[in-house]
Every structure is written in structure tokens, then in C-alpha cells.
Amino acid sequence: MKITFLGHASLMILADGKKLLVDPFISGNEKVAGKVTLDDLDPDYILVTHAHQDHTLDVEQIAKNTNAVVISNYEIATHYGNKGIKVHPMNHGGSFDFDFGSLKYVNAVHTSSFPDGSYGGQPGGFIISSKGKQLYIAGDTALTMDMKLIPLSHSLDLAVLPIGDNFTMGIKDAVMASDFIECDKVLGYHYDTFGYIVIDQKDALKQFSDAGKELLLPKIGESVMV
């Protein structure tokens, strides 16, 4: 799998020839300006972890532009389905085999509402299994004991964890989360986009290194392989 960082919590994942866009927040992110545009994105699927605006801002436009299938919890899928968008609803603990591989919807501890205040279901994360590789996308979440369940059924090659603190886990909890999920290679996201979640990147890298782990902080548009 090829994972391209698109800023904040947005990712483009290439898995077995299919493009999976995660939580698109492009047009409203000033740090992305001049680097990525909506016209650059042509996903086959859009994965949505929860309904907050910084994860859903561009879902509707991209889905209508590309005919992509939105995959999320039942409430979010219903929200977009009612707009004429193709959807695949999931819920916590469920798995489904797609043409890119297997997808499992797992727990996250956070909140979830659309910008107008309407209910966005319970937040979640995804585990993607494709061509012998396994990728965990935590979504916005606190450190949770449920993470200890993941290595009982999955052997992760890479984990994408929020590290910005304030609204999600910070660095210390992300290091602990990597222990819980038994994955020492972490791509950090959901940091530095706005004031509440600015981090000291050098300190973050050091904390992971001191724990014998690898933290990846790609620039917008950069990719990593698993």
C-alpha cells in the first residue's frame, strides 16, 4: 500500500489498484493551498471516521465529482446516501471484503456531529488489509484499552495515529498506543493545522525514538509505503 499525506487527517491510500481517500479536509485547510486541490483527487472510495467538519468538509463534492463510494458508520453513510451519493454503511466490529482488500471498522473514543449539529453516529477507525499488508487508521481518538484487541487479530505494518493533543491523543499517549497495538512504526497526523494542536515535532520524534519506535511526519503530498 502507498499512503500519501494530504494534510491534517486526510490521506490517499493506494491499495491493490484502488484509491481510498480518508477524511478529506482540503479546501478549508490553508496549509494545503497550492499543494493539493479537489481536482487532483479521484478516489474510488472515501473513508470517513466521524462527522466533524475537519474530516468531512469535502466529502460531498469529491464524491459527486468522482462517483466514489463513501464508507462510514451507518449514520454518516445515511447522511450522504440521502444526498444521492453511493455509500457502504458499516458499524463497530464489522468487517467487509472489498475489491481492494478487507476493511474492519473499529472503536474510537471521540465525538461525532456534523457542522449543523446533527448526529454523526459514533466515531471509529479502520483497519485495511490488502495484499498481505495491514494498516490501522485510528481516526480522532483518545488512548483506549480497546486498542489492545487489535493485535489479537491483526499484525499491523503501519499505524496512523493522531498526535496533536487537546482534541485527541498527544505524543505520550500515542507512544503508549503503539505498545497497545504492537506496532512500532507510526505515521502521525492531526497536528499543527491550527493553534490548539501545534506540537514540537523534534520532541515528538525524540519521544518515539527513545521508546525504540519510528514516527513518520511526512510533508503534505509525500508518500510512504507499507
From TrEMBL:
Keywords from the UniProt entry: Hydrolase
Matching entries from Gene3D superfamilies are given as: Ribonuclease Z/Hydroxyacylglutathione hydrolase-like
Where's the Metallo-beta-lactamase domain?
Answer: 7-190
SMART domains assigned to the protein according to its UniProt record, in alphabetical order: Lactamase_B
Hydrolase as a keyword of this entry, yes or no, is yes
Which residues does UniProt assign to the signal peptide? none
Would I find Transcription among this entry's keywords? Answer: no
What terms describe the molecular function in GO for this protein?
A: hydrolase activity
Database matches in Pfam families: Lactamase_B_3 (PF13483)
Family membership: Belongs to the UPF0173 family.
Tell me which PANTHER family the record gives.
UPF0173 METAL-DEPENDENT HYDROLASE MJ1163, UPF0173 METAL-DEPENDENT HYDROLASE MJ1163-RELATED
Among HAMAP family, the record links this protein to: UPF0173
Instruction: State the name under which the record lists this protein.
Output: UPF0173 metal-dependent hydrolase SAMN04487911_105118
Organism, as annotated: Arenibacter nanhaiticus
